[in-house]
Amino acid sequence: MAPVLIHPTGVNFIEEQHRPDVNSDAATYYGGQEKFSRSRTYSASFAHGYNPKRMPTFQDESYMRSRRMSHDEKGTGPRRFLIDVEETIRVVLEQEDTDGDFQISITDAGPKLMALGTATSNGFKSFDIRGNYMLSNLLQELALARDHNRKRIVLDEARLTENPVDRLSRMIKNSFWHSLTRRIDGDGLEIICADPKNRTGRVNPRIYVPHGEPAMAEYYRRVAREKPHLNLDVQVLPPKPDDPRFVKSLNTKPGILALAMNEVDTGRGGKTLKGIPFIVPGARFNELYNWDSYFISLGLLVDGYTKMAKGMVDHFIFEIRHYGKILNGSRSYYLCRTQPPFLTDMALQIYNQLDRSDVDANRAWLKRAIQAAVKEYHTVWVAEPRMDPKTGLSRYRPDGLGIPPETEATHFTHILEPYAAKHGLSVLEFSERYTDGTIKEPELDEYFLHDRAVRESGHDTTYRFEKRCANLGTIDLQALLYKYEVDIGTAIREVFDDELELEEDFSLAPFPPSVESYANPHRESSKTKPQSSAIWFERAEFRKRMIDKYCWNESKSLYFDYDTVQEKQILYESVTAFWTLWAGCASEEQCWKLISNSLKKFEVLGGLVSGTEESRGKISLDRPNRQWDYPYAWPPHQIMTWVGLERYGYLEDAQRLAYRFLYMMTTAFVDFNGVVPEKFDAVRLSHLVDAEYGNQGVDFKMVPREGFGWMNAAYQVGLSFLSTGMRRAVSTCTSPEVVFGHVLSQPMTSQQYSASISDPLGLAMENLQLPSLASGPTAPLAY
Predict the structure, then answer these.
(1) What residue stretches are annotated with the Neutral trehalase Ca2+ binding domain (predicted)?
(2) What are the angstrom distances between the C-alpha of 742 and each of 264, 425, 739, 753?
(3) Arithmetic mean of pLDDT over the chain
(4) Is the dihedral of CA 534, 535, 536, 541 positive or negative?
(5) CA–CA separation, 95 vs 704, rounded Å?
């Protein structure tokens, strides 16, 4: 039983009329001074120092007296508990946290039972808290109360039994987004400069300011002077910051890249700069990311944070202007790489939700975003080396030299060992000499060309792209660029009266693409004439024809990547084929074939897996799992497919898939102390992922504080697809097989799903044993 509070004899506490809403955020619920009314009078009023004419005090807290009531706990009103915060945390962890990870989960062997003293009985009468969900919520609430310096609390039982869907959605909206918010300026540098991926040993912050921003450089120099304890190193980048040799030279001195800022009043009659806030993915990813930000913005828009999403577009505009592209991430080692392009859809989604009171300002903002997207399109995606002029397909093919420095220290050991042995060196010695150019290995250069391309694709890593990514016209990239072309054309026609002047001067890519046109050094300038919608719709139509020619496979009813060097389709089955539905470049017939013949290849109990087991191949010690392969499920693939299916009128399929993913998320949230991870094993319904660097968003103490960026967004977006009945069902962790009335077969594995309901503890224990995916039985359904 939780400890009974020691308090002045005769003081009794019950609920009063002015408590905060039971489901309010922690700052409201636990912040400030609580007041509670009394439930009975006292026969010895002045005994033990109690004066009925004064407000009774409980150490530093005051409690209002009320009329006399029964001493027994009321049976009709909401139940509340009187709790000593620190002592109850100690008891809960000691009794229930048997594995010592400061979380209460179904893998813990505690009794899953604790008696708490009720507020109406002054803590002398108790009520049992039962089950993993209530106990983990209790631990979370105690941690939040501790955050607000509360020594004791009156806790509503309703916060422990809250509908898990409502609780998770509320935490994402009111807590997680705020915890993931960063700003690059004098006030935010200490947090944003921390880089878990930095292996150089230097922890003092370093910021790189782009060329052409003297006011920004001076601002950061002033911050360095005013805050000497930071040891801030301010560096100004050259005019061309993405030169591969220069970027490689920064590997030993990594730093954060400056982003967009606003000029604001100091309050003392002067002006200063202030960073525009943005959302980071979380965990080891503590910087602004490209495609993560798109999906995060969708969640922000659902939750009403339009200004935050708009600010992230402002950062992308800044990056295109100063760094030449929307960067993979805002660190120096990402200067040569971008990621999948989503800027046009992101900007249009936000534009449609801006306050209509200032139409001209909104239009001017969208104009800046579309202008930036046009520049990115011409100078990055349809420029060599990413463009293959022969096919007209674009590729992930970034510049760069050497070994990517942001990876885990041992990530490339198995690749480098044969080369190190060849030169009679240790892996570390070989890495240093290869990176500085002392040792030349053309085969290794080719390997890292493809490795950088994999990272630019966002799908790092997968056997789909192994040793060939830079040569592939991937179906996902073609779909995204088709969407760019349509979006830009539509914006020019509908918003800018079919005429868009480009303010920056850059070269336009030839159209239609051909080997001859790209060999011609003459390029039309962006300022020669205004952009019209017609050329963009022509580009979109041309790309659709190339997609159908090179990527569509009629016999397999699926889109595939095209190898521009080997000049053949790569028959790896990827769920990104459904991005064509999101982009709108599939015909109605192609859509029907995709859904009728191919969707079942990717659909498993927990949603959509990244690829099929057959395409991935067998897994062994020498060929370990990759996190973007089967059986893993990621938020981008889910959201893109949901939206694409809805776009083509297949709402029921979208709802079913959304339900599957949210069911998996909700069961993990209920069973594992509120966890919201980066990714899932969708076959085993588990966040206990052992591939590559493991999972992110799972290493927290007592209460989840961030979740993970795009997983948070997937939950909020996914809820918008569910009917009221589906939302109720997922809140009770009802299996999709029960909701949709059939058992899902697994076409890509010999393992068969059981239609019976399993013990979730057994499922979790099986996951902890990490059995071989190639041999162990697939975990049966939970709940």
Answers:
(1) 90-118
(2) 59, 58, 8, 11
(3) 89
(4) positive
(5) 20
Active site residues: 460, 678
β pairing state of 181-182 and 393-394: unpaired
Query: Which range (7-11, 86-90, 512-516, 637-641) has the least confidence?
Result: 7-11
The pLDDT tens digits of the residues spanning 695-739 come to 999 999 999 999 999 999 999 999 999 999 999 999 999 999 999
Contact present, 442 and 606 (Cβ < 8 Å): no
Q: At CA 467, angle to CA 461 and CA 469, rounded to 5?
A: 70
| Helix (H) or strand (E) segment spanning residue 349 | helix 343-351
Question: CA 21, CA 635: separation in Å to the nearest integer?
Answer: 32
Q: Which conformational region is residue 584 in: left (phi greater than 0), alpha (psi within -120 to 50 degrees), or beta?
A: left
Instruction: Show me where the domains of the chain are located.
Output: 15-36+77-162, 412-470, 573-739
Tokens found for residue 89: 């945390």
Q: At what angle do helices 290-302 and 635-647 cross, to 10 degrees?
A: 60
pLDDT in tens, 14-24: 445 567 889 89
Q: Give CA separation, 724 vs 343, 432, 728, in Å.
A: 32, 58, 6
Question: SS3 of 155, please?
Answer: strand
- Count CB-CB contacts under 10 A for residue 332: 24
DSSP class of 572: -
Mean pLDDT along residues 766-774: 40
